[in-house]
C-alpha cells in the first residue's frame, strides 16, 4: 500500500514530505479492532517490531545519508565538520 502512496508523492514536485498516521499500533476498544485489541495501522507492531512498510517509509523519506568524516575544533565556538 505504501508503495502506491510513495509513487503518488513522487509525481508531485511541490510535496516536500508526508507523515504516517501513527508510528505504532495502539490499543482500542473501537468496534472492529483486532481480537488482540490493537489497531494495526502503525509502521511498528504492538511489540515495536518493524513492519515491511517501515523500511519502505524510511527509504522514501530519508533518501540522503550524511556521514561525518572529520572534525576540526576552532576558536570562538566556530568548528569545522567534514
Summarize the SSE layout with pairings.
Blueprint: H1 2-10, E1 26-27, E2 38-39, H2 52-61, E3 71-72, E4 80-81
Antiparallel strand pairs: 1-2, 3-4
What does this structure look like?
This protein has two helices and four strands. It is of the alpha+beta class and 82 residues long. The chain has one domain (2-63). Strands 1-2 form a two-stranded antiparallel sheet. The chain has a two-stranded antiparallel ribbon with strand order 3-4. A hairpin with a 7-residue loop joins β3 and β4. It is elongated, with a radius of gyration of 19 Å.
Distance between the termini: 39 Å
What is the overall shape? elongated
Please tally the β strands and state the result.
Answer: 4
Percentage of residues in helical conformation: 10-25%
Tell me which oligomeric state these chains represent. single chain
The low-confidence parts are: none
N-to-C order of helices and strands = HEEHEE
The largest beta-sheet arranges its strands as 1-2
Protein name: Beta-galactosidase
InterPro entries: GH
Organism: Parapedobacter deserti
What attributes does this structure have?
alpha+beta, 2 helices, elongated, 10% strand, two-stranded antiparallel sheet, two-stranded antiparallel ribbon, 82 residues
Compact description:
The protein is of the alpha+beta class. It has helices at 2-10, 52-61, and strands spanning 26-27, 38-39, 71-72, 80-81.
